Structures
1.
Amino acid sequence: MAALLLAGSMALAACASDESSSGGGSGSGGGGGGGSDELRIGLAFDTGGRGDRSFNDAAVAGVEAAIEEHGGEFQDLSPNADASNRADLLTQLADEGYNPIIAVGFAYGEVIGDVVEQYPDTTFAIVDSSAEEVGADNLTGLLFSEEQGSFLAGVAAATKSETGHIGFVGGVETPLIQKFEAGYVAGAQAVNPQIIIDRQYISPAGDFSGFNAPDRGLLVAQGMYEAGADIVYHAAGGSGLGVFQAAAAAGKRAIGVDSDQYNTVDDPALQAVILTSMLKRVDNAVSAFIDSYVDGSVEGGSDIVYDLAAEGVGLSTSGGFIDDIQDTIDDYRQQIIDGEIEVPTTP
Amino acid sequence: MNVLRRIGLALFAPVLAIVVAVVISSAVMAALQVNPFRVFEVMFDFGETPAQQTTAIVVILNRAVPLFLAGLAVSIAFRMGLFNIGVEGQYRLATVLAAGVGAAVALPGPLHVLLIVLVAMAVAALWAGLVAVLKVTRGVSEVISSIMLNVIALGIASYLLTGPLRGSPEGASIISTAEIPESGWMPSLNGVFGALGLATPPRQLYGFLLVAVVVGVVIAVLLNRTRFGFDLRAAGLSPSAASASGVDSRGMVVKTMLLSGAVAGLIGMPDLLGSTHAYTTDFTSGLGFLGIAVALLGRNKPVGIALGALLFAFLDRSLVPLQIQDFPASVVTIIQGTIVLAVVIANEIARRVALRAAERGSAVPAIVAGDGSTGPGQSASGAASTGGAADGGEGTGAGVSRTAGAGQRSDERQETGA
């Protein structure tokens, strides 16, 4: 049995190298030239998929911007309902010869290690997860300092709040979303130490439904508004729509996340309640990564952190609702960039 | 002749269901201006290189194993007329605790795996046992209590994962339990491909496949060839008739739920022992609900459930190639949904066909065995297996094996996740 397994694994190794030399051939060429080979970008989404008007769509925007500049095409894949086929999405893209391949979402962190090993000639990037722990030189991590942007969201909320009572709705209680919470709370308390902050998550760790449940987002936010909060910040993906609806119904305000949600909600009644959005420039990160792939300057094996200084995170100004407090925000922004304020990453 | 006829009848309903589903979903695709023939072609295209083809097979089998176990767990309860919706919570709680125990101990290989599996079975059986105890002592409907217990189980699993059993470092984006040492891993079956002269895929074929096959055989024998199985089916068909002929139906409820739960505990094992080696925040969820659809599709027979699981796994795998060919992935969801609906219809048609055949063929009105206490769904679909009446015909005549009376209302469950 052991011998069989050994033989099997040798055959496996042979197969893997066969495939990658045929499938990934364009990659090694593309890294140098750029113009000669058509750029074929693979994009693997997490649950929610394309059309979430938030995180995943930001990645698409980044890819489209890069294609505008360098030409080429891209293929995006969404996982099945329980997202158990994440690894298949990546291997299929690699088999089809897509290169580079970008995995959108930290959940890929668990499976990407094996895949990058299997396709050494394909260049991978993962959004929201560290590549350093994987340690493969064909993988780059694209990370964001969500806590810094959320700090500014907290500053805006606390400055704008009339009741001294604000709220935070998290989608799923994961370490990533806790970063948003930690920054938001720190920012609000920096402005007003006495402020009351309601914090609630839609679903517990391990249950990802909280990112895609606008009805539950609405209920949670409704409770906060009824309790006296007048501004609620959401980091809940697709559930955020419910938060906006609750705000509109209560005549209060909400803060969006990831994309400039003022521009993505498509409904004037909801636009009016969006005070600002905490931008997470996944689009910039993705297009910058593709740029460096085309230049042949991808380092790999390391993480690129997009923070306030790198304009990877920030606040949107669409709607002009925070124009009057822009000075305050810029002040805190500068303090964070200068390192005078250190924003916590855990609540 | 009799055997042929039995096989024909047993196959009639599922084949009819699949044909109906294919026709309906083709019509839907045509309405969406998608060429259904191209879609089916892509679904059956397993890739160009031999390694890609075997990988596709491994992906399907790996997905089918947990689906099969989930369907089996649901079907055991169905056979006795119990609707165990709690499979979801049972396996999630079982898997997190088994992962915790597995990571905490060090034992020689097979014992380590055995311990993990036993812990999972015991936890899930106990959790399902709560449902049974509530039902026999307080008359609480198992549908209500198992749904409620699902919520509690998921909450406890989440607490255990983020609290006492947390093994991942602070700040890691995926929370997981500590990794099970290598002695607690289940070897893969990839050697089989070499032995068969096929290309070895880069993916590991779960060794748990063999366990699942054994469990399926054991359950089939237990239900169809033992006193226990007879009592279970009899109590499911008619609790009052079964009691009258000396079956302790309250005891049977407890035993059935314990057995259903024990099998439910295995659902997470293929992934846990074969690939993840830890329970994480993104451990596959929803299998318990999919299991209801699979059990329905398989008409609560282990072989049928295996085929149903393979069909679902096959459809699931085709999601990715369909997207690559720019077909909407929702096509697959449509097919899955129509299959489950079609099964309900086909079961009813098969029942009527068999009923008519039975009325013509023999003077004994064997089919109408339900006592009416659980409504007309009771006798539905049992008839397709009139063979059951023949081989279980001793005694009360209650040996007509039946499929999901209550389960037929569950059909759209799996679509909600999409």
Note: Residues 2-23 of chain A form the longest helix (22 residues).
2.
Amino acid sequence: MFKKRINYKVPRNLLVLFELLALFLIFAHDKDNFNRNTLILGMALISIIYISSFILLRISTGDNYIFLIVTMLISIGIIMIYRIDPELGMKQIIWTGIGILLFFISYFIIKSIKGWKNWTLLYGGASIALFLITFIFGSRIKGSLNWIIIGKFSFQPTEIIKILLIFLLASYYANYEKYKKVKYGSYCLIGTLYLFIAFLFVQKDLGTVILFYFVFSAIQFIYEENRRLILYNTLFFLISGLIGYFMFSHVRVRFETWLNPWIYIDNKGYQITQSLFAIAAGGFFGTGIGLGYPDFIPEVHTDFIFSAICEEMGIFTGIGLIMLFLILVYRGFKIALSQDEKFFKIVALGISILFGIQSFIIFGGVLKMIPLTGITIPFVSYGGSSMLASFIALGILQVASEDLNLEEIEHE
Amino acid sequence: MNKELRRILIVLTGICTLFVSLIVYISYFQIFKAEAVKNNSYNKRLWIDEEKILRGSIIDRNGKILAYSEKVDDAYKRFYNYGNLYSHVIGYSYREYGKSGLELKYNNTLLNIDETTPFHELKNIVKPNTEGNTLKLTIDHHLQEYSRGLLQGKRGSIVSMNPRTGEIYSMVSLPDFNLSNLREDWNDIMEDEGKPFLNRATSGLYTPGSTFKVLTAIGILEDLDPNSRYECTGSITIDGYPIKDYKGRAHGSVDLREALVKSCNTYFAGKGIELGKGKLGEIANNFMINKKIPFDLPTAKSTFPYKENLGKTDIAAASIGQGKVLVTPLNMALIASGIANKGEILQPILVKEAISPDGEIVRINEAKKISDGIDIFTANEIKNMMVEVVERGTGTNGKIQNIRVAGKTGTAENPSGKSHAWFIGFAPADDPKIAVAVILEEDGSTGGRTAAPIARNIMIEALNTIE
């Protein structure tokens, strides 16, 4: 037993090794400002992650890799955020702690309550309510009207709505036989989605617009029996995209700076070109932690964390990060495929697609492969709302990875 | 396989494709695009990296230090030993104003950051390089100083080079500016009407005047009878426009040799029309006119737009180097070199080699033919005529005792009203060691009177001091 615990072949232990080395690098780089609290927090984080994955193994019969993949992502993210700004790094560590707690809480809540698949209208209603609250009480931070500030805390309701959207889709298609008989059932669903997208568009949160659209379209592609609707959906999206392009300058700016940012290098192309400079500077192996200049990029700790990682850890780490998401998505799909309970099957698909598309949008954006839309990398970028929501989603995915039908039979 | 499973797999494949395309794109970017992106002058990292590296020195062909860097108060500072002398060759490297000249072109070599193989990157992490390479030029500092001295107080340019190797010995362009006082002088330099920033040697475009007759003469040697005689009356009328000889003097009965020696405009104007614009253009092209000259510094393209719809008057004017022909002094030096080098044109070179901090020498430029020019027989014939130009014609001021000099003068009319004085030539004619092009901009005098003596002095100095 003990021997197994220190065995290097156990991924959990490899992760600890990685974290210890990274922590050492951070201290080596920042040795002048050595801070005992940082060390304690760092060690605390490592232990929390270690113990959590250990506990998870005991309590969950499901997939035990997704949590490990996520903690690896978090480790890379925290190292980079701490290196950019130690204060934010400390906060991120705390967010991670709360996130892991929420992961377990949501795991237990989702698992203990039955009937999730019956509350379609609730999910839709709650989402719309959250949007309305954002409009009434919301504040504009960095150009997007999608923050609610309560006291010292601010959070983005859209992060919660993402999960509600997936639940809405899952409960709709899990009860497809029933809703199919309702006249224009699927049209109502599309209508609701476009209402969400309209809300997001007004908030100028283009990244989330794309994200919602792709999550919805993928689920619709798999489960909608009225195939013509998929065509309508695609056409409608393209047309409204075109209209958006010609009517709204902030949409046009994204395209212009994507096609040729260099001529706007002094103003609207500044961020993306700085990002490209950083990635180019890093080369294959990176400059080394603390030896690059990622802070030349505005917003580097959130949207542009990937460029910072590429600069200081090289594109090999960047590719590693992309592959971690690839594995996460793959595990998610595997979970969905082996889940017999339809609601959780769709939820697992939705969450996997969410993680996949969200990370793709921002990876591709900062690389200038696709137009840049501000969005966070789940688990990697700095940000409380994003971190917590992603952990809740992960908790749900963990539930979905278990054999739920079997359990019900046992209980009965 | 049921429908649901199949569709799920399609979606999974789609997402996987997106991720794989990300990996392909980032690798493509890193391998093919990163280098250019990194060197964008807006990249602040360039300066930060540079400030950590001791920028390499620049030395002349004999090892004389022309520019170097040294640590002053924790930061490297660039020093230029000869303020004005190398303003256009070496150029400057200032954070505020950017870079120019060789400082720009060989920036990576001077900083020793040009290799970006993964191995080199690894080595850089372990042992970051702190010292750049030294650049060894083909310039001979003494001749450079001497050349500039001869041009002092005038506007114009001098290019002298080794016709057998293409190595530039001296390259002067006046007015110039002081590399060391750039911060203080910047605004004055920008406003100066003499355009001190313009490197006249490589980018100044001038009417070549009679020096261009060398090319027309080559055409006559190749296509027409050089021995047929022509009666020069001092003026010829083409399509109603008169073309006159210098001061309207008649040269009497001339063949090609006599016409070149006396620089007879009417003869060449008439023969030029006989040759046609196609032939003239072909020869011009062979001597790098209308072509980009590959060089260590940016070059302007000399032009002779022979493909345009040229009338007889235009062709006649072009035959004597007037009208639409525009050339750079470097191009004229190449023409002289080409004739000296048995008709073959070599690439002009300014940087010989780079010397690494460990003393390892990397050759930067090799002698390389860039144009076939003309055949050796024609080259020999035109050379003999040019020798006579200096011995008894318009270029007698270029004569050197005991050494045969080949040359051609030019007095180029231009819109300013004051003619440019030109001289191109090389010496010794039978074993050429130095070729030179001199232009005095808007000098108002003839090439024979003012440009030829300068060229002569440079050739004497070069023959006496180099190697």
Note: Chain B touches chain A at residues 4-5, 7-8, 10-12, 14-16, 18-19, 21-23, 25-27, 29-30, 33-35, 37-38, 40, 42-45, 48, 116, 118, 121-122, 125 (CB under 8 Å).
